[in-house]
Write a structure and sequence with these properties.
The chain is α/β, with parallel strands linked by helices. It has 14 helices and 31 strands.
Length: about 600
């Protein structure tokens, strides 16, 4: 009856999220003898649709047994929309259309860069820092994983990594081509991960102090590196100046008195033991982020965000962004961008962000008034499925969906991850033939020599994709050194200084150098050329430059025939025909 491809530039131009007031062109091929179709636009409000517009399409040409129709329009109000086509009272499929604010801009300084994610306690220590009742463990030992006598895992073992240690290793970090350091939480807290904030205005003494952070930010800028922090605003620790369950702070916490200035930040079902906590973890009492006192405390003129940005911080990664209400994120963006429009805001979102529902609300993350970027977990899943299982379909579909619906400004800043402190180490995922059943087994699990060899081969391909697809690649500390480990806490081992896997590290040095040299990777367009299960070929291009990345994970060599003449990166031979070995890749550039 009709031919329409929502991901085709011919059928819908431009692709991606659309600026408010920007002209959009739709074209559709319709079988002869059917009346001219109408384009229906509906606006989405959570789970409800509202009629927005219906426009009759204009005939422009004929092709075989089809008529070609076109319509141009613009949408003034940014928001989430559907569009569809109506033929003789029948309605086509619905297609997603995201309209973002025409003034939306993301930081240019971040585009084309590389993020380095550091779990602060495990990266590097310059000396044993002091904190009462804390014993510093020997560097490189297996993190504690067994529960205590009450069945709780306390995350209370420490290895002494600190801010001074990160500063000392800046030359190494810079050698990886890094432009952004993303730190796990560093505010005062009792755990090693620091997601149980004790005081938003203090650096934990394990890591240093405010001067230590300022010194790190200042020194990092000399290398062209900016520091962003983990903003944990959905909950605090129960042992905090705000909740003060154990009375260790010189304050009146919400747990102690209803007269506490922080009492309304929390929700008590029955004061004071029965309170709402994050994922029912009682050590993490949940914050009511709609509370105006809390919003002002975090986002106000003298709030937490502006305090640390004045110290030198250049952005925030928002922990569990799904649990932060729109009103809070709106205020956060206004605060972060108030003095300087350049700071970067990344939301932790595990699913697609363009039409994400959480807590029965359609989220406004990418409409231009909230986030610059999100953690690109869908891409991670697609890369692993392709590299591990030799099937590029999920990767292909993931990229198509992102390119169809995300604003280009967001795409250029996507935090492209293949491993984080919340996932298994990527080398372990790609190399392992079995998954250990228990934590005891995970604690001693290591790749065999054969698994390691295969894992390294696949890791190089995964990293190549991470470094060349749209967005900003994020290296989880130690992945570049060959760290292994299953889920938390084994994915949070100490960086193996002096025992790095040189094969892996040398590859990272090479591929990150390549990325920084090839400017088209900053914001160039993406186009898939071949997606045939075990073969995936794509190009990044703009008006001045083009590169092609070709990956062959099949069991046989293939011949790649191109329309244009290219040259293998780093070589002088020009051709339009290339041999691509099995389980290997090519990087091609214009001569």
């Amino acid at each position: 009856m009709y031919i329409f491809d929502s991901q085709s530039q011919f059928c819908r131009h431009p692709q991606g999220g659309i600026k408010s007031n920007e002209i959009i062109t739709f074209k559709i091929l319709v079988k002869r003898n059917i009346n001219a179709p109408e384009l229906l636009i509906e606006k989405r409000h959570d789970y409800v649709r509202a009629f927005y517009d219906k426009i009759k399409m204009q005939w422009i040409d004929s092709e075989k047994n089809y008529d070609l129709y076109r319509v141009e329009l613009s949408i003034k109000e940014y928001g989430h929309y559907y569009y569809s086509f109506i033929f003789n009272e029948e309605k086509s499929n619905d297609y997603e259309l995201l309209i973002y604010d025409e003034n939306y801009l993301t930081p240019d300084w971040a585009k084309g860069g590389i993020i380095y994610h550091i779990f602060a306690d495990r990266f590097f220590r310059t000396k044993n820092t002091e904190k009462k009742c804390v014993k510093i463990r020997n560097w490189g030992e297996v993190p504690h994983y067994l529960p205590d006598e009450n069945g709780e895992i306390l995350n209370n073992d420490f290895f002494g990594g600190n801010l001074e240690g990160i500063k000392e290793k800046l030359p190494y970090i810079a050698s990886l081509g890094v432009s952004i350091i993303y730190l796990s939480p560093i505010f005062e807290a009792n755990s090693n991960h620091k997601y149980d904030t004790g005081d938003y205005h203090k650096i934990d003494t394990m890591f240093g102090n405010e001067n230590s952070l300022n010194a790190l930010c200042t020194e990092a800028e000399k290398y062209g590196i900016y520091v962003i922090l983990d903003g944990v605003f959905s909950h605090t620790g129960d042992d905090s100046i705000y909740f003060n369950k154990y009375g260790r702070y010189d304050s009146i916490g919400a747990y102690q008195s209803k007269d506490s200035p922080y009492f309304e930040w929390y929700t008590f079902n029955e004061w004071n033991n029965d309170y709402k906590s994050w994922w029912n973890i009682k050590t993490l009492p949940e914050i009511n982020e709609n509370n105006q006192s809390y919003i002002e405390f975090i986002t106000g003129k003298n709030g937490v965000l502006q305090h640390w940005q004045k110290v030198g911080v250049m952005g925030w990664r928002l922990d569990v962004a799904d649990e932060l209400p729109d009103e809070f994120i709106d205020a956060l963006r206004t605060s972060v961008k108030k003095e300087n429009k350049s700071p970067l805001i990344i939301g932790e979102v595990w699913e697609y962000a363009s039409n994400k529902y959480s807590y029965e609300k359609l989220r406004k993350y990418l409409l231009g008034k909230q986030l610059d970027s999100v953690t690109n977990y869908p891409l991670r899943h697609g890369i692993i499925e392709f590299v591990k299982n030799k099937d590029c379909n999920l990767l292909y579909e993931t990229l198509n969906r992102i390119m169809e619906t995300y604003p280009p400004e967001t795409v250029d800043c996507l935090m492209n991850i293949i491993g984080t402190h919340d996932t298994e180490r990527i080398l372990t995922v790609l190399g392992s033939s079995i998954i250990p059943y228990s934590k005891e087994e995970m604690s001693v699990s290591r790749l065999s020599e054969e698994e390691l060899k295969q894992g390294i081969k696949l890791l190089k391909i995964a990293v190549l994709l991470q470094m060349t697809l749209p967005g900003i690649p994020c290296i989880y500390y130690g992945d570049e050194a060959g760290l292994q480990g299953w889920k938390d806490p084994f994915n949070r081992r100490c960086y193996p200084w002096g025992n790095e896997n040189r094969d892996i590290l040398d590859y990272y040095m090479s591929i990150t150098s390549f990325r920084r040299k090839v400017k088209v990777l900053a914001s160039g367009k993406y186009k898939c050329l071949i997606h045939d299960k075990s073969v995936f070929v794509f190009q990044r291009f703009n008006d001045k430059e083009k590169i092609i990345i070709a990956v062959n994970l099949s069991n046989s060599e293939i011949t790649l025939k191109l329309r244009e003449t290219m040259t293998e990166y780093g070589k002088n031979k020009e051709s339009n025909i290339f041999s691509l070995e099995k389980e290997n890749y090519l990087i091609l550039a214009e001569p």
